[in-house]
């Protein structure tokens, strides 16, 4: 009688904990295994514990395979980005002028990276850099239009405001659904680099910008000695 009361007082959690700590409990109790059934919504009415375990393992196997596929896809993407970034950096080493840097960046991002829009802004006196593909303007002028982007501590990714798109991408502004921007030169504020995609979901606020930050660092080091201050 007392034993029955103790069994009645056991909670489901206590039973589960006991089975976790005694995983061989059913090995010598085949008759008990035969009596165990789990509810099933299918036409057969009930399924055995073994069948349920197999189903759970199958689901977990599918989940692990999906995770592995995602990891492999990300690895392949990162490898592709690394190769493109490597080629861009090597090309930048040969650039001797602001215009050459701009042309190199444009060719890489629009052709190799296959983006839809690109902007390279340099903070300097426009009178000193007339023949260049870069957008040359004073920092004060840029801050009138894109102050938040100029003074951002990190890269900015996502959907930009209309005035920001117009300043950065000009005639292609209406075709840009999302963008990634980063200030060049850190506290020195040498300029801006902006990349645009027609897809509104291409650049997201939570995306990894490791390669973009690396490219920005290289561009900053490249153009710093070229600028007349």
Question: Helices and strands in order, then pairings?
Answer:
Layout: H1 2-9, H2 12-21, H3 30-35, E1 37-39, E2 46-48, H4 49-92, H5 98-112, E3 117-123, E4 135-137, H6 139-150, E5 156-158, H7 162-169, E6 178-184, E7 191-197, H8 210-223
Parallel strand pairs: 3-4
Antiparallel strand pairs: 1-2, 3-7, 5-6, 6-7
Helix pairs in contact: 4-5, 4-8
Q: What is this structure, in a nutshell?
A:
The chain is α+β, with helices and mostly antiparallel strands and 229 residues long. Helices cover 51% and strands 14% of the residues.
Q: What this model shows, in words?
A:
By secondary structure, the protein is an alpha+beta fold. It has two domains: 12-93, no CATH class; 96-226, Beta-Lactamase. The protein is built from eight helices and seven strands. The chain has a five-stranded mixed β-sheet, sandwiched between helices. A hairpin with a 6-residue loop joins β6 (178-184) and β7. α4 (49-92) packs antiparallel against α5 and α4 packs parallel to α8 (210-223). It is elongated and about 90 Å long. The mean pLDDT is 86.
Number of strands: 7
Domain count, please report it.
2
Biggest pleated-sheet summary: 5 strands, mixed
CATH architecture annotation of the largest domain: 2-Layer Sandwich
Distance between the termini: 94 Å
User: Strands across the major sheet, in which order?
Assistant: 4-3-7-6-5
Number of helices: 8
